[in-house]
Each structure stands twice: as structure tokens, then as C-alpha cells.
Amino acid sequence: MGASLFPSAAIVGAFLFAINFLCTIPELAIAKQEPITRHYKFDIRLQNVTRLCHTKSIVTVNGKFPGPAIIAREGDRVVVEVVNHVKNNVSIHWHGVRQIQSGWADGPAYITQCPIQTGQTYVYNFTIVGQRGTLFWHAHISWLRATLYGPIIIFPKHNVSYPFPKPFREIPMLFGEWWNTDTEAVITQALQTGAGPNVSDAFTINGFPGPLYNCSAKDTFKLKVKPGKTYLLRLINADMNDDLFFSIANHTLIIVEADAVYVKPFKTNILLIAPGQTTNVLLKTKHHHPNVAFLMAARPYFTGRGAFDNSTTAGILEYENPSNSSSTKSKSLPLLKPTLPAINDTTFAANFSNKFHSLANAEFPARVPQTVQKHFFFTVGLGSSPCPKNQTCQGPNGTKFAATINNISFTLPTTALLQAYFFGKSNGVYTTDFPSSPLFSFNYTGNNPLNNTMVSNGTKLVVLPFNTSVEVVLQDTGILGAESHPLHLHGYNFFVVGQGFGNFDTNKDPANFNLVDPVERNTIGVPSGGWVAIRFHADNPGVWFMHCHFEVHLSWGLKMAWIVLDGKQPNQKLPPPPSDFPKC
């Protein structure tokens, strides 16, 4: 296919997000040398947005889609005033931020806070402690994060360099999804009928579907680069329900960071990024103007049985012409396309995941627990719930779809778990008897491993003493189909010490764990038909959510929570909630 020259208004729109981001960087250079407090205001309001020739009113922050960037340095305090002007209840999660002693600001509705109701304001107040890199923020209630999301860019402290060559420019690229219909109606209908929800109409890059969709050529993210330069692409998967393959035609990427943690650099032509994950890559441009443009394309990795959006989003990478000659305008340039793996290429997914390693050096050590005090074995997967009387359900065999950890589908309470825990009012809100392993063993990854797919329900938590060393093995199951599950842990990073296909073998697999330089992340894909083992120190008191970052699985109950008790020192205790803490 040939590249087309976009109308000038569309070019302005496609570049607006990146320009707004880049224009904020000089402020960091002239800021004080000491950590400072950075103030933001998020007005949650409706905004008419048109994509795929379809205009609808969406929930936004400050009328922007995607939302504005939070930009800070390591050590800075961030204060975000969120004012809710819409009819929906709202909460905002600062995905990947550790929230040391600031668990009240973590954001998941009914876990660490009650939602912000219409007309209410809540101020999120937290400090960036020991982190630098790319994260993101998003709504954490129902399916509002379909349009409520944006980047968090954390620069190193002053006079601290990247452990890789300084880039010429830095560009955030957020993958998302677009529905022509209201996503709140989509999930409401799915939960009522018990069926899988309708899939999105397009994937997006920085809010734009790109030229491979009908009625979307003008809505394309376009990145212009100079020859012979190094660019840092800050990739964020804010998709609702899909892992994505990504590639730039005829270019090699160097991966240098994952989930705001530096990694040993490695080259790749194709990367895989799960919802909730971030990946920083270096793009070294060609030394001379190539007289072609290059497609930057992303499409799903999917191994499940249900419906999914089998489409491709794309942006265009174009080299700036050193001369002003009109003979090589973009409309006349050939457009090269990348080759992406097959939709269900689990081998690529496993091999790619195994390439990530921590730097594990003196400056950036890998503090992986060498011994474990608490072991957990969690099965993750799908199941079913009974259809209510006098109702026809459209899930498996006339039931409703459900999703579980250790066959427990988590029930959200009607008050915040952290509030109930802190004030000692857990009675009737939650129990602390979440099982450390499945109630009975079976061939987890076999075909049709169970005749009975019914799940149990409850608001069950795990209690961990402060600074406990924890190991969790996350085991996918074949119940209603094996598939990848991107598991996200709030309040912590963890080390991915092992992973493999089939059923985890307690006697054999730990011998192969990497306890030297395992990658440190906040979100990891449980391999389809396999397992992954993670370790962390429970050194951050509070109540911390752990869940699948596929929004459909989260809605079906694939989630649980940890209570981490206070330590003995003042800096090991959770302070009281702020005075403006939302009420349920």
C-alpha cells in the first residue's frame, strides 16, 4: 500500500500528545536540584471524540484522550487533585508506583479507597521513592480505563544519567482500544447475560487507530525522526483485554527497561507487551534518508477460546527530509510493513519473556529474596457461576462466565478494604482465609481438567507479617481454555525467578530458578498453559490488590488482595487516611 499525506489538521492532532509531553521536559532541567512537589489537577469530564467516523461522548481527564502526562523526578512528591464532574464514580490508580506509606493514594475502588462520587474531589498525594522510568495512570473502577489513562514519566535524580546512551528525543507511545459503543454498557450487558463482552472496534496508538482501519487514515500517529539519531520510545500497553505484538518495519529496537526498572539491553525486531506493562526501547535511526516510510504496527497475541479484536493498529515512522525538496513528500513515499508473529505464537511469547534480566550491578542491584518464608501456589483461570433462576444465561452450558484464583472468584466489598483493615472493622467486609494453594490438585493444564467448572465466591485476603519473604507460583489452568493472564501486583515490584509450560513441579522446577539477575516487574504474563514464579519482600504495609490486567477477567473475579502488617519502626507503619478520603 502507499502512504498518503495527511491533512494538516490531522497531523496537528496526531502530534499533539507527543508535543505536549516533550514541551514539559525543559521544566525539569531548570527545576531545583532537590526533590520538589509537583501539582496536577485532573478534571474528570465528558468530551466528544470521533474515531472510525463515529462520534461519542467519552469520560476524559481535562478533555484529553489519552490523558495528560504526569512528569516527575525520582524523589519528587506528586499531588494530583481529582475533581469528578461526571455521573460515574471514579478512582485513579498510579500503576507501578510503589506508594511507600501512601497506600491511601493507590486508587483501586473498594480496595484502598471508596470511589470519588459525582461532584466530589480527592487529592492523591504520594512520593516517588527509588523509582525511575515509564509507568502510567488509569481509572480503576468498572471499565472507565478504556478512555481514562495517561503516562507517568519519572526521570532520574539530577546529575544521574541513564545506564544507556542519552537519547536525542523521548516519545511516549500508548497502546489502547476504541469502542464505538459505551464500554460501561458493554460490560454491564456481559455481566447480566453471563456471556463474553463485545470486543473493541480498533486498537490505537496514542489514541489514533491508524491507516489500516476504515475511515481512519487521517487519525494516525505519525512520528518524524532525523537520520542518525537515537530515540527513546516509552511504550505503554493501556489496552483493556489484549497482549500486543509490536514492530517497526525494517528497524531494530534495543530494550533497556521494563516496568520502570532497567534491564540488561537486548536487541529485537518484535516485542510483546501485556496490558499493564511498560517497555522502554531505543530506536537508532538510519544514517541517511531512506526515501521510504515505515509502518509501526501492533496486533494481539491471543490463545483463548473466546472472541477477540483481530485487527492491527499502526502509526507511521517517517524520516525528515534534510532538504526542502518537494520531490520526496510523504504522499509519494513507499510504505514498508513489518511482519508480526502468528496470533497464538506461544513459543515467541515464552522466548521473548526469558530475555529479560535485571542489571544486577552495584548501582542497580537485584535484591531478590534468596530464602522464602511464605510459599503460595495460585491457580489462575476461568470457570462458571450458576445462572440465576428465571434467567437465560449465555455463558458455558447456560451458566455465567467467571474467573478465579484458587477457584475463588473475588467479590468486591461495598466499603474500602484498607479502611476496614486500618480501623479494625473487618467483620462482614472480608475474611483472612484465602487458601495458600488449591483446595484439591488436578492436571491443571490438561484438556478439560475438571468436569465441574463451578467457582466459589468470597472476599478473602492473605495476611503477611511485615518484611516477610514471599514466593508465589502462578499456574494457568485449562479450565474453559488455557490462555495468558497478565497478573499485576499493587504496591510492589517482584522478581520473576522462573517460568515454564505445563504443570509446575515442586520437586524439579525450583532448582532452575534464577536468583542472580531475574527481571523485576509489577506485571507479568502467566504463560498460556504454563506457570510463572515470583518473589518479593512484603516491606510496604497496607492492603494491596493483585489481579489479572485483562479487564474482562478482572470483572469476572480474577483478583485477590494481601494485607501487609505494619513493622515496628515509624517508617514501617501506614499513617491514617487523609481528611478528604472519599466515603462510600
From TrEMBL:
GO biological process: lignin catabolic process
Cofactor binding note: Binds 4 Cu cations per monomer.
InterPro entries, per the entry: Cu-oxidase-like_N (IPR011707), Cu-oxidase_2nd (IPR001117), Cu-oxidase_C (IPR011706), Cu-oxidase_fam (IPR045087), Cu_oxidase_CS (IPR033138), Cu_oxidase_Cu_BS (IPR002355), Cupredoxin (IPR008972), CuRO_1_LCC (IPR034288)
Subcellular location: Secreted, Extracellular space, Apoplast
Taxonomic lineage from the root: Eukaryota, Viridiplantae, Streptophyta, Embryophyta, Tracheophyta
Function field: Lignin degradation and detoxification of lignin-derived products.
Family: Belongs to the multicopper oxidase family.
Organism of provenance: Quercus rubra (Northern red oak)
One MF term in the entry's GO annotations: copper ion binding
Keyword Cell division part of the UniProt annotation: no
EC code: 1.10.3.2
Alphabetic keyword roster: Apoplast, Copper, Glycoprotein, Lignin degradation, Metal-binding, Oxidoreductase, Repeat, Secreted
Domain Plastocyanin-like: 46-157, 171-321, 441-566
Substrates-to-products reaction catalysed: 4 hydroquinone + O2 = 4 benzosemiquinone + 2 H2O
Domain of life: Eukaryota
Chief location bin: secreted
Entry GO terms, CC: apoplast
Transmembrane annotation, as ranges: none
Cofactor: Cu cation
Gene3D superfamilies: Cupredoxins - blue copper proteins
Protein's UniProt name: Laccase
